[in-house]
From TrEMBL:
One of its GO terms (cellular component) is cytoplasm. This is Phosphohistidine phosphatase SixA. Keywords: Hydrolase. The lineage of its organism: Bacteria, Pseudomonadati, Pseudomonadota, Gammaproteobacteria, Aeromonadales. GO terms for molecular function: protein histidine phosphatase activity. InterPro entries: His_Pase_superF_clade-1 (IPR013078), His_PPase_superfam (IPR029033), Mito_Ser/Thr_phosphatase (IPR051021), SixA (IPR004449). Pfam families: His_Phos_1.
Amino acid sequence: MNIFIMRHGQAAPQASNDALRPLTEQGCEEVCLMAQWLAPQVPVFDRVLVSPYVRSQQTWQQMSRFIPGIQVDDCNELTPDTDADLTASLILAYCEPEREGNLLVVSHMPLVGFLIESLCPGTLAPIFVTAGIARITLEKGHGGLFNWLEGPHSVRTQHAGAWPLCGTTG
């Protein structure tokens, strides 16, 4: 089982409420770039768990243009200040380590970093850039293995000009 943990794209600095902050145009482009980079590796997400905050919802909307999700759930346990160990337990409840599949989690800092730490014994919480995606491989009896963490800047450098810009989510 592969677990992909993603931080939302760049969001507007202010809104009447933190949960209402939308993606900026740059945030939309970051997510689009990451989706195009990930699509050849992941043909479909078996399950997608998304924070109810606007910026995370918009991030999933952009991702879903390139990688479909079979089952998509809004998840109140994915807000920025949620307990990472509790959320990691919830994520593991959705996973079946003995089968192959792909689960995407779209959330916020600092939770995304702490989820890596909770799911992968011996790994410290990494810092995610906006639209950053980490991959964890979950193996029965072994816990999570932290495979990689990529962001728009590293992907753009590796594959300069490979993907067109997406435009805003509207």
